[in-house]
Amino acid sequence: MTKRKLFIPVLLGTSRQGRESEKVAKLIYDHISKSPEIETQLFDPRVMHLPQDDEDGGIKEQNKEWKDAIIRADGLIIVTPEYNHAFPGSLKRALDLLLPEYIHKAVGLVGVSAGGWGGVRAVEHLVQVVRELGLAVTFSDLYFPKVQDAFDDQGKPKDEKVYKRIDDFMTELIWMAKALKWGRENLPSKYHKK
Predict the structure, then answer these.
(1) Closest Cα to residue 84, out of 50, 122, 58, 111?
(2) CATH classification of 6-186 is 3.40.50.360, yes or no?
(3) Residue 163 backbone class (left: φ over 0; alpha: ψ -120 to 50; beta: rest)
(4) What is the pTM (predicted TM-score) of this model?
(5) Domain extents for the chain?
(6) DSSP letter (8 states) at residue 98
């Protein structure tokens, strides 16, 4: 019997023009795509349907690819830049499209900033939101300070040690994703149908 790979999508947290966090999201996506035990998909709020004048629940049906991915997901990676000590509104709008689909799934948070803190304040704020959504946050966040200096002109990281940091971050996320997947499949819960 072939064991199914874990499905762990990556969500880029901003639609802003000139976003440096896109390099980070693509780096993580490309790196984990090579893993034999992970399947992934990159989601970008620029191509999601996030109207400013309608927050009705029907919006999730207009973002069927996102909804279907989260239903199927074993975990999630969120890459968020820090804007004014918090995460972007486009990320909140994307996350708010769903609710029960997130419950009892692991989430790893990645902070990005132009300054030296690497997005830690955005991640701190985001923990409260994802917890309310029912996601289980790993304790090993990943940070990219001074992101504008971290990549070369081809979008490659200047410091090769970043791959070890991503691997360490993923080790915890994979462990939690497997544990929560087992729980969803084997323990009674009003949130999961068998």
Answers:
(1) 122
(2) yes
(3) alpha
(4) 0.94
(5) 6-186
(6) -
